[in-house]
Amino acid sequence: MMTEDLPSGGNLHPMFFDALCDGLSSAFFAYDKNDLLLFASRQVLNFFPIQPEFLHSSTRLRDFLGAVFDSGVLSQGNQGKSSTNRDGWISQRIASHWRERFEMTEHFIDDRRVRVINRRLSSGIGFCILSDVSEVKKREEQWRIDMERVQLTEDILDNLPFPLFVKDQNMVYVAVNRAFCEKYQTAADEVRGRKGVDLFSTDLAHRFDESDRHVIETGEMSISRQRQIARDGVERDIVTRKHRIGKPGRYFLVGTMQDLPKDGADFDEFALASHIKENGDRSYRRAYVPMAALQTISRRPAAMETFAPENFSGRKILVVTSDFAAETAALKTLGAYDFEACVVHDENEEAAFLDVASAHGVKIDLVIVDNQLGKRGVELAERQNVPVLSLDGSQLTTELPFLIARHFNRNIRGELGDVKGAGPAQEWRHGAGEDRRVQVVVAEDNDINQIVFAQILEGLGYSHVIAASGDEAVRLWQEHRPELVLMDISLPGLNGFEAARLIRGAEKGSGSHTPIIGVLTQAFERDRNECADAGMDDVILKPVSPDIIETVFQKYMRNIRKAQSR
Q1: Which keywords does this Swiss-Prot/TrEMBL entry list (predicted)?
Q2: Is 417 part of a structural domain of the chain?
């Protein structure tokens, strides 16, 4: 840029240098061996709020620096001990301009960082380049902080006593901890950047990926159990938990594995179950269990007392599932209602169990098969004329009592005959006698959820009717004028929003207002807002429980008349 023979006061082509500085987002000024300015680009004013006349040629460098000091743009830290001594600061800066090479970063009071580069040529001519490096410094500082955080996180994860792994959306391992490497006798570098098919058998890797992709796509937590043989040759049950973290488009899967302690106290199995040999090659499977269910499986709501008759006590139920969370929930629930319950983990164990039971004359009253194990489990039970229900993991943890009660109650009604001729599906949909005023209208089209609502409301003592569509919900509201409406938003015919709007329209001018509670499956803000726009008073989320229902009723129902025992 500069030449050794550039004459003092020579033509520096100001327009050329201004254009160059604009392109480089920098400022430039030059001075001769007498410390008189030869040229200063107009961009200098972007860095120092000084008067333009200080940029004129032949201005003394000392006067230019004095104007910079007087502008107060530099922070106290940069002015240092000479911050109150103007002449001392100017002398230090002139000395730096006489050095052959000098670089520094100035910290301005507006938190800008400016890099200053000074050069002095052998002819005595010097120049200075100013560049704003604020963003660069911020990125460097953030990078340093991020690296410290990453290092801290890695240290924490490496010291966890159980294996942990992280996968990206492409099912590629991006991180594993020390316990994971020790478990599989490998090194982290041999795992990172690879997929499950590179580390495990093809079948096992595909099973892992199936579960992992479901968690990544849905955000549902996965809890599962698998049988593994450790390095010491001992078979152990391993519980794997998987979560999704991150943001849309940048999700990661975090998985942890822990040994399942051998504690038979929680399992009340049939006496003949000891004859069934554990299958050491139990396959891995996915399990999608709502967290709310795991938090409430140990409680026995008072409302459930009404649909577990005493004659259910002692009935023998076999559960077929390889899902540890569903197994635990099912056993605790069945034990709470005095069923005799046992769990096997695949179709082979089920077949062996049923054969042994038949050989010993033990009657199995019901087989419950996890529907993710396939149809063979159902076929095995039907082959031996044992009643069977096929349920998913969520039903095993949240709806099991209702479904079993429905099964046995239907069988009892089938044996006794239906005197009145009403179909069994209608008996629980109308929880009010002819002489009782309907307090609650439930709009719900799903058969299982209808049973759940009916059993809870009957247990809590509220008279109710159930509508299977939005049109029926409006009709039943007009007919009964209930004290409250529970409105599912996804209904055939009129949806829940449209039904609520019709009810609100019919109430105009009447002075009446029926509380309408929206029932949602997901806590989407748009659904909440649309419920409010449709005139609903509040929302609740599925799966519902007696506590949730009772809380809503206490808040919104007025002059509640509890049903008398029949």
Answers
A1: Kinase, Phosphoprotein, Transferase, Two-component regulatory system
A2: no
Give the confidence band of 410 by pLDDT, cuts at 50, 70, 90. Answer: low
Q: What is the token pair recorded at 123? A: 């002819």
Residue the block writes with tokens 């409680």: 299
**How many of the other CB atoms lie within 10 Å of CB of 128?**
21
Burial profile 434-464: b = 16 or more Cβ within 10 angstroms, e = fewer = eeeebbbbbbbbeeebbbbbbbbbbbbbbbb
Residues 80 and 25 in one domain: yes
* CATH number of the domain within which 222 lies: 3.30.450.20
Phi then psi dihedrals of residue 511, to 5 deg: 80, 0
405 and 474 in a single domain? The answer is no
pTM: 0.33
**Claim to verify: residue 401 and residue 446 sit in the same structural domain:** no
Question: In sequence order, what E strands does 170-264 have?
Answer: 173-176, 222-229, 235-247, 250-259
Q: How far apart (Å, rounded) are the C-alpha atoms in residues 39 and 17?
A: 9
Range of the domain at 178: 160-263
- Number of folded domains in the chain? 4
State the distance between the two ends of the chain, measured CA to CA, in whole angstroms.
Answer: 101
What percentage of the chain reaches a pLDDT higher than 90?
A: 13
Structure confidence by residue, pLDDT tens digits, 496-531: 999 999 999 999 888 889 999 999 877 678 888 899
With respect to residue 298, please indicate whether it lies within any of the assigned structural domains: no
pLDDT at residue 373 greater than cutoff 80:
no
**327: nearest Cα among 397, 262, 226:** 397
Q: Give me the pLDDT at residue 157, please.
A: 79
Domain stop point among 263, 284, 302: 263
In angstroms, what is the C-alpha Rg of the chain? 38
Segment 200-222, tens digit of pLDDT: 777 777 778 888 888 888 887 77
Q: Are 256 and 240 in contact (CB under 8 A)?
A: yes
